[in-house]
Amino acid sequence: MKKITWVGVATFSLAGLTYFIPQWNVLLAAHDSWWPLAKEFILFSGVTAWMFMTLAMILSLRLPVIEAATGGLDKGFVLHKWSGIIALVAGVMHWLMEIVPKWMAQQGWVTRPAKPRRIDAGAADWPLELASTGQSIAEWAIYVLIILCVVSLVKKIPYSFFRFVHKIFPLVYLSVTFHAITVLAKTTWWLTVSSWIIVILAAIGSIAAFMSLFQRIGKSRKRSATVARIEHNEDMIDVILQTEKPMHFRSGQFAFVRFGNDKEPHPFTIASSPDNPCMLRFVIKALGDDTWRLFTDLRQGDTAEVEGPYGCFDFTSSAKRQIWVAGGIGITPFLSRLTVLAQKGGSVTPIDFWYCGRKGIPEGLKEICHKANVLLHVIDTSRQKRLDKRMLSEAISSGEKVGIWFCGPASFGHSLQRGLKDKSIEFHCDSFSLR
């Protein structure tokens, strides 16, 4: 099971445990109607929604320990996305179960049981008032959360607008957290361990939210840089950045780069060798408006800001043989690794490198593969059939322990991975989809 699946299952299990500890006796008791069970569903869905919102906030911190737990920042982005979707679904169900039964009672379709009278008439009313305020705030937060998720999932909405709207999420989280804490004030949950779980996670999530609001996430990993060299090659640019401070990285990792006065950074794989941490090479293909503008406007001497390194696509494996597959611009992480191996006199582990592109062999690739002792296979997709799972399977002996590293179009990677179900085969890939 993937690491992010384990993290998701653990989060759901923690939500269930947090709910069941104080409510177990209520669930086991006999009930005359379904109304008390509806209340329990409201509590459970609310805890689940808030727990996954907390997970989304923690993932946004981009901490090394989080990368290790999810298998890389790119996998963390996938989990972040699904945490938002699960939080939205559970939150909407929580909201609907809160208002629909009341509306049905108003219509006379169901009978709502009378609320128990308060015996402690002299007790303070502030917990109830706080809970009511928190509920009103949370209701509006749900509306905003729905809008945020729609903007995040609709790919046709520009990425710049998505990034801008996404910055509102910490405020939504803080609003829902206020609701969660104030609801506890009128329950007996404070007498159980569940209250400690909620308070601790609320503190961590709130810290993450404030760090996001004040743009402190990734601050310690940022480096100022200058464009030292730039080369144009048809629809690609080869950029060398000189950083003020060294950025120690491993081959296959990536960084967020913001050039000049760009409002938002973009992730690019580092194509240079880790031996010189102050000189970072990025090979960027002009695919969208932002990268096309770089292609036409970026000049030597321009400033840049680099944040990183990130990712676990680092060729670390116990496999007896490695197979690399690059599609087009997906060659960049392999360029870094090839440089390292060439400097060391060649790879000891057998490596087959399949490069698939429309324009033949990139300049210098054959030479550096020879120096790195890597067997190169080139497929010109403008004239040949694209590499498929059958061709790749034929290159692997039955039961052979092989590690496959793929970088290229997502659809290409999925088609290869679906055909390689052998447990002895490791499949490594990065996903740069931030939505």
From TrEMBL:
Transmembrane segments: 44-65, 77-97, 140-159, 171-190, 196-214
E.C. numbers: 1.-.-.-
Required cofactor(s): FAD
Subcellular location: Membrane
Gene Ontology MF terms: 2 iron, 2 sulfur cluster binding; flavin adenine dinucleotide binding; metal ion binding; oxidoreductase activity
Membrane topology label: Multi-pass membrane protein
Listed GO CC annotations: membrane
Pfam families hit by this protein: FAD_binding_8, Ferric_reduct
Keyword tags: 2Fe-2S, FAD, Flavoprotein, Iron, Iron-sulfur, Membrane, Metal-binding, Oxidoreductase, Transmembrane, Transmembrane helix
UniProt-listed InterPro entries: FAD-bd_8, FAD-bd_FR_type, Fe3_Rdtase_TM_dom, FNR_nucleotide-bd, MRET, Riboflavin_synthase-like_b-brl
Domain FAD-binding FR-type: 220-316
PANTHER family: 1,2-PHENYLACETYL-COA EPOXIDASE, SUBUNIT E, NADH OXIDOREDUCTASE HCR
Protein known as: Putative oxidoreductase
UniProt source species: Trabulsiella guamensis ATCC 49490
